[in-house]
Design brief:
Pfam families: DUF1697. The protein is of the alpha+beta class. The protein has seven helices and eight strands, in the order βαββαβααβαββαβα. Helices cover 37% and strands 26% of the residues. The relative contact order is 0.17.
Length: 175
């Protein structure tokens, strides 16, 4: 099975430094093969015969033991990432301007009541839909100006999320 591991909060704003070359080398000692990383923000692609939860546990333990990092790790099948792009409720807006589109990958599907109260904050320029365990977020004001940050979504939903922009998400389906 081909997987994508999404690490939350590495190499962002000078915190949680994690050189991808060192990470790739460390992952070679695991039951993973075909390991590659994409950009410096904690994207790992690999193959394994293990289940996704087992892979996440292995990566979490490796991050703690080798790099003294305790960061959330989400492992998704690469095909799931591809389906996420195809399922976007904002395809038209994405085609027009992909730089305003991002995806928040959640550690599980949120409680519907929290989804309903969170979606009340959506407006024409900052609109999102939460489907299963993904936040589809179109941010026409620009991600540097929005108050709807990854931390905002985590607080509103009461769970872990990690965001990837459209271009990164697309690349994770192609590697």
């Amino acid at each position: 099975m081909r997987y994508v591991a999404l690490l939350r909060g590495v190499n962002v704003g000078g915190k949680n430094k994690l050189p991808m070359a060192l990470l790739r080398n460390a992952l070679e000692k695991t039951p993973f093969y075909g390991v590659t990383t994409y950009i410096q923000s904690g994207n790992i692609l690999f193959s394994s015969d293990l289940k996704s939860a087992q892979c996440a546990d292995i990566i979490s333990e490796l991050l703690k033991s080798e790099f003294d990092l305790a960061v959330p790790v989400m492992v998704k099948e690469q095909e799931e990432i591809s389906k996420t792009l195809k399922a976007s409720p904002f395809k038209t807006r994405t085609i027009e301007n992909s730089k305003f589109m991002s995806f928040g990958f959640l550690n599980e599907s949120p409680v519907q009541e929290k989804v309903n109260t969170t979606e009340e904050f959506s407006n024409d320029m900052e609109t999102f839909k939460i489907i299963d365990d993904v936040i589809y977020f179109y941010c026409g004001v620009g991600f540097g100006k929005t108050k709807m940050t990854n931390a905002w979504f985590e607080k509103k939903l009461g769970m872990t999320s990690t965001m990837r922009n459209y271009n990164t998400t697309l690349k994770l389906t192609e590697l």
